[in-house]
Write the structure tokens for this entry.
Amino acid sequence: MSIFRKKERNKVQPKWKIKRGTLDFILESAKSTFPNEFGGLLRVDADEKHTIKEIMIIPGTISGDSHAIFKLHMLPIDFSIVGTVHSHPSLSFHPSDADVLLFRKFGKVHIVAAYPFTTFSWKSYDYNGKEIDIEII
Ligand SMILES: [Zn+2]
């Protein structure tokens, strides 16, 4: 555990927000990809660093029965990307061990959408897999 990580943990986390339309897009994408998984990146604008406005679908996301594994080498270097989103074809929106390992490597906010992909079947997590709130705006 580096000193950097310790400092980061003690810092007050900013309140994350997501546009309703962006959330709808996630849920629709998860539905249309079902029973396979869908994976994407969460993007913000430079002037609103904590409002998720756009989803970038990752080409080469592995779809299947297991959890989506992102090919990290395919991720673009882009500071507007703040985290990841993926779907679970099951009722569980809890991140798997593999999910948490990914969260720790990349990004600050992560969304998991679970079947049946309604407004009530998704959750968001920080880099350590701890549940956090995202306000829908
Ligand atoms: Zn997962």
